[in-house]
Amino acid sequence: MAIEKVGVVGCGLMGSGIAEISAKAGYDVVVREVDEAAAAKGEARIRKSMDRAVSKEKMTAEDRDAAMARITFTTELSGLADRDLVIEAIVENLEAKNELFGALDGICGPETIYASNTSSLTVTDMAAATDRPDRVIGLHFFNPVPVMKLVEVVRTIETSDASMEAAFEYCRRVGKEPITAKDNSGFVVNLLLVPYMLDCIRQLERGVASIEDIDKGMVLGCGYPMGPFTLCDFVGNDTTLRIAEIMFDEYREQRYAPPPLLKRMVAMGRYGRKSGKGFYDYSGDTPVPMEI
Ligand code: CAA
Ligand code: NAD
């Protein structure tokens, strides 16, 4: 089950990073987006990230151009027909993911491995809806993908050893450190990280301190690389809300319940960095805390 041809579905925050590291590692990559505008936005994001690596002398301009040339963009699912591995990074919605995998069943060969980058859904719920549950895995990358070293490789009760081995080999070739996670909602990291993020929002609702001071507290007091509100804006508040809803639905534990403030922010389009406003306003040179 040697992987040479990789497909990435969705070229947003995560998909663009997955396409980038795959192309840098020498894989032939096809990226599928919903329309030309989204594909162009994804392509620009990948190029910007590689340009940054070139300007920091971590990559040569020739290697960047070669990696970009290995990526093809398409709006057609049929463009994924010959892929050995297809990684989806579309919206955190089971119906959307299952509709995608169902359509791929009629397009990809029987050997193709499907992977989901889901944050909180269970991979089994996707595997059960395909014609190849032994070849369905979770590949949970972390944001920003080019920087974060971890990938959680998620095994369902149907996943074959061969699929796991192929997934581990892929992770190592793209320079990541894989760990095996059981297929429970939130896997390992989000099971612990998401309640922390939600709790920080609840403490802000209670008025314990300002956005800036809570962020400063966790950075300077605990050595976290980012404060919790900077992290929420970085992940995307819409994504965090979806994750919280899914995990709360799964566990019915208060610590996964989405705080009202998070719901209100998403209703107002304050998604974080990607929409220009979240807990901070990103329209100026430096982020400014917003009114809550
Ligand atoms: N793309 C590519 N490279 C990036 C990048 C990006 N978006 N952002 C930063 N980098 C690189 C920089 O080029 C830099 O590289 P060098 O040190 O080699 O020059 C390095 O990362 C550090 O960047 P900066 O100096 O600009 O900034 P920083 O020191 O503040 O680090 C950070 C940025 C790596 C993002 C750091 O703040 C961090 O680790 N934050 C926490 C991120 C985190 O917790 N991620 C997990 C989110 S949860 C998740 O992903 C799971 C889920 O399902 C929701
Ligand atoms: P995003 O909103 O930045 O990107 C999603 C992209 O998918 C959009 O560009 C959209 O146009 C595209 N898309 C939607 N349906 C599609 C389809 N059928 N075919 C092709 N493209 C389609 O979202 P994101 O933050 O990149 O998250 C994607 C997935 O990764 C989610 O499952 C999320 O839970 C997971 N995840 C997110 C993070 C994070 O920090 N944001 C971290 C790890 C995992």
Keywords:
292 residues; alpha/beta; Rossmann fold; N-(1-d-carboxylethyl)-l-norvaline Dehydrogenase, domain 2; 2 domains; eight-stranded mixed beta sheet; two-stranded antiparallel ribbon; 45% helix; binds acetoacetyl-coenzyme A; binds nicotinamide-adenine-dinucleotide
Question: What number is the mean pLDDT?
Answer: 97
Helix content: 40-55%
How many β strands by DSSP?
Answer: 10
Q: Which class best fits the helix and strand makeup?
A: alpha/beta
| CATH level-four homologous superfamily name of the largest domain | NAD(P)-binding Rossmann-like Domain
Largest sheet: 8 strands, mixed
Number of self-contained structural domains: 2
Beta-strand portion reads 15-25%
Give the strand order of the largest sheet, numbering strands 1, 2, ... along the chain: 3-2-1-4-5-6-7-8
CATH topology of the largest domain: Rossmann fold
N-to-C span: 51 Å
Assign the CATH architecture of the largest domain: 3-Layer(aba) Sandwich
Which stretches are poorly predicted, pLDDT < 50 over at least 5 residues? none
Radius of gyration: 19 Å
Q: What ions, cofactors and ligands are bound?
A: acetoacetyl-coenzyme A, nicotinamide-adenine-dinucleotide
What is the CATH class designation of the largest domain? Answer: Alpha Beta
Task: List the quaternary state of the chains.
Answer: single chain
SSE topology string: EHEHHEEHEHEEHEHHHHHEE
